[in-house]
Amino acid sequence: MLGTVAVQPPTSTWLPLPKPRICFPGKLPNSGASQYKIGTFSLLSTFPHHFSLQTKERFHSLVSPNASSSSSTSVGSAEYIEEPSTKVKFQTSLTLPECSSPLSLLGTGYREKVFAIIGVKVYAAGLYLNDSIFSKFNAWKGRSAAEIQEDSSLFDSIFQTSQEKALQIVLVRDVDGKTFWDALDEAVSPRIKAPTPVDESALSTFRSIFQGRSLRKGTFIFLTWMEPAKMLVCISSDGLPSSVDATIKSMNVTMGLFDVFFGNSPVSPSLKASVANGLATILK
């Protein structure tokens, strides 16, 4: 999850722990080193984490709703993939406000932080793309998931395309909107080296939709890139959103957010790895 979350340790644990908080620092170097302070841990640090990669067979069912797989379940006419670590279910295809066509799920992941001996899962996330985007990446055919993940150029190309892509974040902890925004701002702002008035206005718009808002466990937050410099923000606590909460028009802000998840120091390495696996499957 993006955000600072107050986490209560399990009532059954014998270890007396201070109440932790989760915060986002600025962009981290590729050193593999973790940032840790007593009572504080950072979502963008590189603590050991577990990957939730989808196999090729599983991903086939993810991008092909009619394919059968034991890893997907059917609820009505909608197909779902369960992110195994958080048990959060993601639709394999969905339509979001103002999108021209349905978007397909490419990969899922989660974020877990370790405080003392307790692993705290904070959110699950899934990346959705317009299917037409794949025709632009023929140069990447035959590349392995490891090659795709290590070379940022394909992720850069995905961001630069004019086709829609959306990130769905599903909270697995309660958090208030102000805390969520403060942590998000700490992650994005350092990625904007010299903010322009346009950037400041976009950040102010972004901030306003979280102020005074309670974000409960299970809340959906969608970041939908309509084009590189335009992103829609939708928040819903009751299923898929039916309207847009804010429109962000700033290349620096939208690119900074994409970098938070798919840059060299991603907030959820498991998500980026899963997406790389999905790309390798489609482009094989």
N-to-C terminal Cα separation, in Å? Answer: 31 Å
Helix fraction bin = 25-40%
What does the radius of gyration come to? 18 Å
Average of pLDDT: 78
How is this fold's topology laid out?
Elements: E1 21-23, E2 36-37, E3 40-42, H1 56-63, E4 72-75, E5 78-83, E6 88-91, E7 93-94, E8 103-115, E9 118-129, H2 145-150, H3 153-160, E10 165-171, E11 175-176, H4 177-188, H5 197-208, E12 214-215, E13 220-227, E14 230-236, E15 246-249, H6 251-262, H7 269-282
Parallel strand pairs: 1-3
Antiparallel strand pairs: 2-3, 4-5, 5-6, 7-8, 8-9, 9-10, 10-13, 11-12, 13-14, 14-15
Task: Describe, in plain words, how this protein is organized in 3D.
The structure is a single chain. The chain has 284 residues and is α+β, with helices and mostly antiparallel strands. The protein is 25% helix and 28% strand. It is built from 7 helices and 15 strands. It has helices at residues 56-63, 145-150, 153-160, 177-188, 197-208, 251-262, 269-282; strands spanning 21-23, 36-37, 40-42, 72-75, 78-83, 88-91, 93-94, 103-115, 118-129, 165-171, 175-176, 214-215, 220-227, 230-236, 246-249. The strands form 4 sheets. The protein has a 7-stranded antiparallel sheet with strand order 7-8-9-10-13-14-15. Strand 5 and strand 6 form a beta hairpin. It starts with 20 loop residues before the first strand and ends with a helix. Mean pLDDT is 78; it is low at 1-77.
